[in-house]
Request: fold
Amino acid sequence: MSAAVLYAAVVSYVATRQPSIAIVAALLGGVGALMLLFVLVREVDELLPWSLALVGIAYAIAILAHGSGVDEGAPLVGVALLLCAELATWSLDERWAIAAERAVVVARATALAVLALAGLGVGVLVLALAAAPVGGGLAWTVLGAAAAVLVVAIAARG
Amino acid sequence: MTRLDSPRLATYAGLAAVGLLAGLAVGRIELVALAAPFALAAVAGRALARNPQIEATVTVERERALEGDEVRVTVDLSSPTGADRVEVLLPLPEELRSLGSNPRAVMLRAETPRTLDYTLLCERWGAFVLGPVFVRAADRLGFHSWEMRIGHAQPLRVYPSVETLRALLEPLDTQVFVGNQLSRSRGDGIEFADIREWEPGDRVRSINWRASARRGELLVNEQHPERNTDVVLFLDTFADVHADGRGTLDLTVRAAASVAHRYLQRKDRVGVVSFGGYLSWLLPNSGTRQLYRIVDSLLQMGVVLSFAAKGIDVLPPRTLPPKALVLALSPLLDARSAAALLDLRARGFDLVVVEVSPVPFVRPGPGELARLSYRLWRLSREALRARYEQAGVPVVEWTDGEALNVVLEEVTAFRRYARPVRA
Reply:
């Protein structure tokens, strides 16, 4: 339920971000929401990445259509989507009806909260660094691309 | 041990890669900020992974229990590194039910052992093995998990509950050993039998002085000696008809355990022949050890499909001692067991057949043809019973829910008036 609420909040935010493309955002978000419902109700967890990707695409279209201004809500959108994915996964884990003691539930909830806060911090840090007057150019682009590849490589190794 | 990585890690890494590259491509920092939490989750997931190296031991409170008993099982867990979520499943057969939750998830701290208690209700008899347990350890967010089977198997034997039998079938003949059964022959004993004339060699203490004084000649008392009997439980395991957790084999085992227990209590010798696809036997013997042997053999009993022709010739001669009472428990479904029983009777054995009725477990199918088939089947069973009765074999139908006492009383009543003819 919490995952669906978070997803709906993100879709609403994206749709209201740029009224000119609200229909496109709502369409993509609606399809993604249907997928998420399918994940939660029918336990088809393969659809979860597509659901997240669709709302991500809608957000990208919205900010591109919006123009040059930086959307300061981007870290919140990212954290909301991450929480949505984690809560949906937690919901799927509960289908096995394994009696978990309180400490296990508290530990997972705490870890999730820490992850969300850390994600929010990283997102804000990214926006802050982008606003810093350190110049630009090919070197920064190459450095950024290398950093992106490094992060993906580390994650993929796991 | 098997390590499993959650597909979320790949998803998060993929979404992070797409977001970062799209941000670089279109020059929008928002997409990088959007992807950053996913990248962080993917990296954190990798950093959190550590093998928990869990060890577990399974301990069963006792090896033997009765149906309806509760047995405590403990699972001791320990790990040098600890684990945030350890799911433990104790695999249980259908006959055992956990009164607590199973599986369960617990937190295991480093170097701090934990003990999980399970209370099992033994719902049905059988020989079981408990353990190893299935353990799945995962990190807090479930990005990585390790699955393993650990702990040694522990045996648990659940014996069938024994029905209290008020009376037993008395064999026609007794054996030569001392027991509680009054023999029809005459000899040394307690029970008075008759008076006869004194003969050289008779002991003075056996002279009946009062009768001798009245008759004017020496008369001695004769007694019935107390002897034991041999009983062979002939169990037909060719077929089993069951429904809703009850069946003919289940009833057979319960009855055999009850009868063996009661006969052994009164110092008789009891043997078992399991006549089915898999032939097994226990030579007649007496005592508590024999009771355990019999019950243990009953726990292993099952139906093994076989099309091999079998007669009683395949049995070793000592399994069916002369003058033994052969108590057959059979659903009378397989022609081989039906023929073997008639063969036993033809060889002069004191035979009683308790027909463990499969009828309550069979329902006629829908349609005229199915109902007709059912009626024909019932008629063929009656015809088979008539064949046994013609051969002088008492056959009693025992249906589920009926007390075994009633069945044995019925056989006793039959045998009171019908004696087998000896050739």
